[in-house]
Known about the structure:
Blueprint: H1 2-9, H2 11-31, H3 33-52, H4 58-76, H5 88-120, H6 124-158, H7 165-196, E1 205-207, H8 209-223, E2 229-231, E3 239-242, H9 244-261, E4 268-275, E5 278-284, H10 316-326, E6 330-335, E7 341-348, E8 351-352
Parallel strand pairs: 2-4
Antiparallel strand pairs: 1-3, 3-8, 4-5, 5-7, 6-7
Pfam family, one: HATPase_c
Keywords: ATP-binding, Kinase, Membrane, Nucleotide-binding, Phosphoprotein, Transferase, Transmembrane, Transmembrane helix, Two-component regulatory system
Protein name: histidine kinase
Amino acid sequence: MGFIKKIEKNLWLQYLLGIGSIFLISLICFLFIDIIGYHVVALILLLAVSILAMFLDIYPIVTVAILSALTWNFLFIQPKATFNINTPQDALLFLMYFVIAVMNAVFTSKIRKVENIARQRKEREKTLQLYNTLFSSLSHELKTPIATIIGAVDTLKINSDKLSQDNIHELFSEIDIAGNRLNRQVENLLSMSRLESDFLTLKLDWYDINEIIHSVIQKNQTESPGHPISFIPQEDLPLFKIDGILIEQVIHNIIHNALQYTTPGTCIKVETRYISEFFQIIISDRGKGFPDDKLDLVFEKFYRLPKTAAGGTGLGLSIAKGFVLAHNGTIKLENLPEKGAKFTISIPAETTFLSIYKDD
Length: 360
């Protein structure tokens, strides 16, 4: 414990430990590269970065994460001893490794900071529970799409001459879905960082709510075509002065949550209302609903209902609530009498109606 505290207080010692560990692990892997292959080396280096993130501050661990990516490229990706990459597949792998390594380093470091604050406030037990939940969820969310991408790329490289066009299209589709899944996690992490900082500033402009909802539905139906989404736009709605990007993410997170946890084939319904100076968005589904005693908990960070399927970090609904509150609005969750759940988003906003003027 004394050595760990010494490391935490000495920034230069952190740099030395981090850089030395990466070089040592890379050297060992280089000696056995013919046995383990460069894909396994990437996983080993990611594991090393994850472990070091438990002890190093933000700047040393980001430096270590970037260094590990460059070392993997220089020593293990063909052509070796250069930073050039010959194939698009290897370039994609390097890019994914770089993003995951830095994201994992930053996020793990941020969790440590939260844990330290919680310890000072005598909330160590609760913070450790959040950390374990997040680590478990994040590990699954990163490991699954990474494995999908690596597997698909390997198949394309080894069997490219034997694959039919349908097979190739299917593999590229798998890579696209896995990439989108990783992108969602990055967006959620960035959104949560914005909410936790004191610098979230709304970029207000005039937006058509119908267009925002149509855009969200189109993106979600591309990924989950088995779920019908019902939306009948109200053409007489005014334009609302809001941060359209944040509101779009609010709607996306709620619909994506419904798609993930309801039975395929059940309908998700989206409605809009305009009441005085407020506009409402109502999103309902025909799933199992939520336990009555958990309705308020689902908006907490990292919270996931017991016995739910693996996947997700428990950030989506928390981010949705945060962005709604940033607009001075409210978000309400209730179970429907027949079956399913309903989210009601109410946001105050300035309004205007488009007027078309003709030249005389």
